[in-house]
Amino acid sequence: MAVTSSPAIAGRPGLVSLVFQRKSLLIGLVVLGAITVFAVLAPLIAPYAPNRLSVVNRLQPPSGRWWFGTDEFGRDIFSRTIYAGQLSLLVGAAATLLAAAIGITLGLVAGFFRKADGIVARIIDAMMAFPDILLAISLVAALGPSLATVIVALGIVYAPRLARIVRASTLIIRELPYIEAARALGVPTWRIMLRHVLRNLVSPILVQATFIFAYAMLAEASLSFLGVGVSPEVPTWGTMIAAGRQYVGSADWMTLFPGIAIVLAVLSLQLVGDGLRDLLDPRLRKDL
Amino acid sequence: MTRYVIRRFLGMIAVMFTVVTIVFVIVRVAPGDPAAVMLGPDATAADIATLREKLGLDRPLILQYLYFLGQLLRGDLGQSIFLNMPVLSALAERAEPTFFLTLFSILIASAIALPVGILAAYKRGSLFDQVATTLAMLAASIPSFWLGLIFIQVFAVRFSWFPVSGYGGPDASFIVRLSHLILPATTLGIVSSALITRFTRASMLDVLNDDYVRTARSKGMGEFQVVMKHAFKNALIPVLTVIGLTAALLVSGAVVTETVFSLPGVGNLVVSAVLRRDYPVIQGALLVIAALYVLINFVIDMLYLVVDPRVRY
Amino acid sequence: MVITASSGVGTGAALALPPHVQLKVEDLQTYFIQGASTVKSVDGVSFSLSRGQTLAVVGESGSGKSVTSLTIMRLLAHPGRIVGGRVLYRLRGGDVVDLAQLPEKRMRAIRGREIAMIFQEPMTSLNPLFTVGDQIMEMILLHESVSRDEARVRAKRMLELVEIPAPERRLDQYPHEMSGGMRQRVMIALALSCNPSLLIADEPTTALDVTIQAQILDLLRRLQKEIGMSILFITHNLGVVAEIAHEVVVMYAGRVVEQGLVLNVFERPRHPYTRGLLACIPDVRRDRTEGGGRRLLNAIPGNVPSALDLPTGCAFAPRCPLVVDRCRELPPLIPVSEDHLSRCWRYDDL
Ligand SMILES: Nc1ncnc2c1ncn2[C@@H]1O[C@H](COP(=O)(O)OP(=O)(O)OP(=O)(O)O)[C@@H](O)[C@H]1O
Ligand SMILES: [Mg+2]
Prior knowledge:
Low-confidence stretches of chain B: none
Number of helices of chain B: 13
Helix content of chain B: over 70%
Largest sheet of chain C: 8 strands, mixed
Radius of gyration of chain B: 23 Å
Bound molecules: adenosine-5'-triphosphate, magnesium ion
Strand content of chain C: 15-25%
CATH topology of the largest domain in chain C: Rossmann fold
Pfam families (chain B): BPD_transp_1, BPD_transp_1_N
Radius of gyration of chain C: 20 Å
Main location (chain B): membrane
Structural class of chain C: alpha/beta
Number of strands of chain B: 0
CATH topology of the domain at 98-265 and 291-307 in chain B: MetI-like fold
CATH architecture of the domain at 98-265 and 291-307 in chain B: Orthogonal Bundle
Shape of chain B: globular
Domain ABC transmembrane type-1 (chain B): 95-304
Mean pLDDT of chain C: 85
Oligomer: heterotrimer
CATH class of the domain at 98-265 and 291-307 in chain B: Mainly Alpha
Strand order of the largest sheet of chain C: 6-7-8-3-9-10-12-11
Subcellular location (chain B): Cell membrane
Structural class of chain B: mainly alpha
Shape of chain C: globular
Order of helices and strands of chain B: HHHHHHHHHHHHH
Keywords (chain B): Cell membrane, Membrane, Transmembrane, Transmembrane helix, Transport
Number of domains of chain C: 2
Helix content of chain C: 25-40%
Number of strands of chain C: 12
Distance between the termini of chain B: 5 Å
Distance between the termini of chain C: 23 Å
Order of helices and strands of chain C: EEEHEEHEHHHHEHEHEEHHHEE
CATH superfamily of the domain at 98-265 and 291-307 in chain B: MetI-like
Largest interface: A-B, 48 and 56 residues
């Protein structure tokens, strides 16, 4: 990407209208916003407490009373689905932040210090060789399953993706003539470089982070489904689907609705990521 | 050319070595004593000490590492704690369903993704393109275990077209085993077709406006041949890379899918190992799968040599 | 040269061309229509090309030269569309067809076999993944029922024809193993391998350095004599025009502004744009580099107007030193002398 000293965000006044021009970005933002609102306001919206048992009403199909039906303990699936959103979003967001912290640090270290670069680059390559779910469950197994370890594991799993971007950009900026000149004059260059690197990386990091958010939510659901993530009693979309597994064919609503929730959340994040990529830097666009 | 091969080979060895080190570290970062964790709260101090010795945990870390490397070089992945057999045998025993699941998934994924991706690029901006691009994004948003459950609901339970789960018992015929693979392979195939579709479309878009494609048209060649012979062959190289890497990463999807369909494959083995804290098995599976990924990467680099005459350095 | 000032000639009757004419473009209009915006890249262009002759089309970048040639080949990219006009072409058998109306399937049999094309970018016009031999043979096998061995012999002969040394070895080489000039020779060999009656050369020498350019021009001239094909030669370099062409069409913003025999036009240009172009080459014979072409274009103040907001009237008026009130009205192509047309009200003042 080109490196210029012009203000990073030109034409800011048009930003809102630019968002509106991109239908998919708009849809993504609206759906994501709706999911977030539902999750945050779950205590106000949910008609029942998520853990209220009612054995007489177990496995009721969707109806006016239980919009999404009830599960094997008679708990209201609609209420659980929106409460589960809290945790799924929390895990996704926290894992993304952690991945960003690790990834950006690693990338900067690799880019700034020639000596460290070889090792860091190789670690990044090697980390990418592990399929994400497999690496995540191994880390969870090593660290012991809990909400926190799931977040840590996913943060580690997705950090290399950001590290790669940051490293590549830092390496390019390091070779810019005026950085070289500054270095030759003995000016401590890392400060200048840091400013440059970060300014140029805001867009790609934001875009990549959106996708990592999406992958992390998918991965968390998989871990919970496999029973190696958060404890099965905690309602997340993954644990809800896992619980519904035994009732496939008899109480399909138990798996259907949490699944739709995941799809909507991940899809909206991908739409936002794609839209942001278009919006922030058309040059990054690879039609992917 | 020899230099290219040697360089790639050395690169592969270096990454392989790092992979081994990372696996070693992962298993050793476990807080507390792995032996105690493995044996559970009822274990006696003597039991724990025995296991520690058996696992070599009583030695200094660096020695453990060197010992680990030495074992690997001899092709020894250690001993499973719960299965009472070498990890390598445990993996080998479970390899068949995973291998075929991965193979069929990638075939299904490519069968969907290549035509759709090519056509979407060729008709860029058309309704077909928009629908295909949206569906690809949707497919990438669907958790494979959920799609698997829906398939079970619809095709196995409601219509009884396919078996619900398992691999047909120890002496089932190949056809029976195959019928057990159809639903899981379709599930994984659909989910992984998303990435390949997007990639095929993008690399086709890259080449469709190239000058040599215009040259081919100016020869009087039909559109189909122009697109498939001249454009697609040039787009194929990055697409091959993605297909290869998807195949390697599918093993990860297999972890989830095998659990949904109760297929006795490597993925299933790993999940039960994680639940039982059978560290040697986890470690072995991680190593084998990452090594596969690195190896496939190397093979793709070599394929470049065959496909692209320009790669010669 | 048969000059048609506008369309309407020969309508109604079955398609026919005077016996010596290979290609006749009549009032061709090619627009790029996307939503509400229309770019009139080619707007009423007419010319005709005799058998065995060379017609040069000159004009600055964006004047519609490539679009004209792609229209004739019917290789326009998506939003491009032929809106009007005819492209009469004489087939080998003697029949005359209107390429603008021909179904794609028949067009395919004409491309490569009857009309071949070479492009500006020799570095990228050949497919990097196939050997040079394969790419030439592909063309031969596409249009003629010969065996692969025969096609290979023919391909080798073509390489000899374009003076590529060690042709047998070159057949098995890939494009990246050759220099730009060599690749352009391969392109020419490829284009001529089915003995086309018309060769369209879209700036074939622009990307090459001066000495190679001269060699390629010499080669084209020689091959034309040997094979007898007509050449539609597109360039923005008047020096090259003097070298190779018999007739010249000067285009500006999608329209023909002057056309005639090279001798006449060079002797006495009747359009201020052509005069401007010519004034920049002190010695046409000497200066045949494309760099010279660039220089001369810069010497006329101003730029080609964007095809989106063409002035009404003469498109050159904003840059014209002779501009008068009347130029707000678009001049027709006015016959200024025998075989010489100019789209300028003041052709007599030139
Ligand atoms: N695909 C397209 N979409 C829209 N407009 C186009 C397209 N292709 C060409 N044009 C327009 O047609 C006009 C003529 O283009 P053309 O390529 O024929 O110019 P040219 O005379 O060949 O110039 P050059 O010397 O640069 O090759 C230009 O103004 C261009 O904007
Ligand atoms: Mg052109």
